[in-house]
Amino acid sequence: MLKSLSWRAATLSVVLFVLFVGAWQLATSGGSTALPPGMDPEYAKLLGLGATQGKSAMPTPLEVGAKIWGHLRDPFYDRGTNDKGIGIQLAYSVARVALGYLIAVAVAIPLGFLIGMSPLLYRALDPFIQIMKPVSPLAWMPLALYTIKDSSTSAIFVIFICSLWPMLINTAFGVASVRKEWLNVARTLEVGPVRRAFTVILPAAAPTILTGMRISIGIAWLVIVAAEMLVGGTGIGYFVWNEWNNLSITNVIVAILFIGVVGMVLDLMLARAARAVTYPE
Amino acid sequence: MSKGYISIEGLARSFPAPSGSGAATTVFRDLWFAMDKGEFVCVIGHSGCGKTTVLNILAGLDDPSAGVVIVDGKEISGPSLDRAVIFQGHALLPWRSVLGNVAYAVSSKWRGWTKQQVEDHARKYIDVVGLKGSEAKKPAQLSGGMKQRVGIARALSIEPKILLMDEPFSALDALTRGTLQAEARRICVETGQTVFMITHDIDEAIYLADKIVLMTNGPGAQIAEIVVNPLPKERARDSFHKHPLYYALRNHLIDFLVTRSKTFAAEIAAKAAEGRPHDARRPPVILPAGLEKPITTLNGSGPAMAQSA
Ligand SMILES: Nc1ncnc2c1ncn2[C@@H]1O[C@H](COP(=O)(O)OP(=O)(O)O)[C@@H](O)[C@H]1O
Ligand SMILES: [Mg+2]
Hints:
The structure holds 2 protein chains of 2 kinds.
Chain A: H1 2-28, H2 41-46, H3 61-73, H4 86-117, H5 119-132, H6 141-148, H7 151-176, H8 180-188, H9 193-231, H10 236-245, H11 249-277
Helix pairs in contact in A: 3-11, 4-5, 4-7, 4-9, 4-10, 5-7, 6-7, 7-9, 9-10, 9-11, 10-11
Chain B: E1 6-15, E2 25-35, E3 40-44, H1 51-59, E4 66-71, E5 74-75, E6 83-86, H2 98-109, H3 115-128, H4 144-157, E7 162-166, H5 174-191, E8 194-199, H6 202-208, E9 211-215, E10 223-228, H7 246-260, H8 264-273, E11 285-286, H9 303-308
Parallel strand pairs in B: 3-8, 3-9, 6-7, 7-8, 10-11
Antiparallel strand pairs in B: 1-2, 1-4, 4-5, 9-10
Bound molecules: adenosine-5'-diphosphate and magnesium ion.
Adenosine-5'-diphosphate (ADP) binds near residues 45, 48, 50 and 53 of chain B.
């Protein structure tokens, strides 16, 4: 039953994919693009539509497939600032995300522990966290550029800031809501505070902490693309922006796919880690 | 009055009113009670009279508002590995296996032991409670009775001076409860374990206890009296209710829970009028079967008294 369900789901996925690609092919193989009716040709030019007159700027699925194949065959070439392989660009982004994220882990988990264990700190810091949490991390960018003066480090800082809040909030919440009876077990066994933190509080709060870490990595990967569009230089976000300036819609589409795949892999890694620390009650 | 191995002296606990304003509620007050080494004492009383609170104070998990608890000549402060607790919920750590849960307690007590020593010791107690073969299972894979067995193994494994149990079998079905009661009694009698146990199950108290402490209803609960169990030390779970003294004891306890626990204030007022005031420091120690003569010393109680009655 279960097997047949996954089998049917896979079949449906394939069918939907084929339909989508077919529709895409039909829509893009028409040849010339007619301007939207009633649009001023001057305005169309401004939008960049004029530059692709005669041929659709929208690539066909085959063109995209060929491009993906080309990138996969040689992902790491480096021919100067504006021409690097997509693998290199992704590696830059992943490295920035990893660095900003790991710094955030190193800050958020110990700090979250303290906040979670102290009702006083919990209440005292809550207003700050509540105000900082909804701020788009990109809003920090000018401040970061002004104080840090280095664009790449600023991007890492923005990743740090956006990864921080979900982990901090979840760690504090997870630690604060460890079941009292488990803490009492540790107390009656005269377990000291450090051992208690590692043998009771951490395993008890781990699923909640990992949920926060998973939210954070997702947000960080969302934010890095926008951040790199702003700071430029390297990274998959810069790649997308650069290809848009080159009017290579094919490469933009390819980049979108790669961004999605890398994001999915990051999420899967955290999901697997979360499963490893989850306990049934 | 001889001080027992455990001596509860003038214990009271009040909680502030929820809103912060208004009067605090005194759950119980002026509790005096002593028990000897190797004794099995059950406390019965209605839900909410403060039994768990008393046990938490004994465990060192809660502090009294007034009074002290003296164990083996020393006033207790905070929890201790000398006093093991079997919790009302089993309170097993769900991410640890059966062995891991027991080993956690063992390694907390003997911090210098090697992993092998810890595991060997833990296995011994897992064996005692009849869970051999389930060492690697996680609590979620165990039935309620098995979980409570792990809780018992964990408490016994640290070889405590006193075992504190808070309605340990109340969540189990009748059959499992009976089996576990019999095993708990066997283990405690064999090892001469001192046990302080809370229950609201009269038969459980009669089967397990040497002495039964009766608490009146809260708020402001008191110890009404201490009933000496007249049943012989050798009792079997499936036949103890056929003992000639069983019904006298049972009726006495039911009578207390049904009526006297509510009307105890009026009862002591009436007795005081007769010139027999209730002394909270020396709650009457009595035998059931209408035997009114208080036994004033806590020592020398037990089955022998039943014959002399
Ligand atoms: N932390 C607390 N704050 C306020 N009231 C409490 C607290 N713990 C227990 N109580 C009150 O004390 C009374 C006795 O509780 P408890 O000791 O759990 O009773 P029992 O175990 O006999 O059922 C109850 O009325 C309960 O509401
Ligand atoms: Mg209770």
